[in-house]
Amino acid sequence: MTPTSAPVLRQYEIIAEISGHMLQQARSNDWDTVIELSKNYYEAVEQLRRFAPLDQNDRIARQSLLTKILDDDARIRDLASPELRRLGAMLGNMKRQQSVLETYCAPARTERS
Question: How high is the pLDDT of residue 112?
């Protein structure tokens, strides 16, 4: 990506670079690094708030950056979905096991008259 003169566009380039790194790590199943990079991503996005609105030419330049960022995000989500389903199933199984243990291994209650 070529550097731009507008600081806000440079910030979008930084965000696009981070999202690209996140996608590479997601493809490598390095979810710990993806999570670490997501913190940088969030901070970079938050920094956009301090910039003035873009003029028409900058909006056109931003369009390709936004397309890349959103495409990376969608691909990361696609890669994360199977892992999230697996974790959800594991949590569901643990919850069922806990319920069974509580039901069958709970101390016997005595009835009082």
Answer: 58
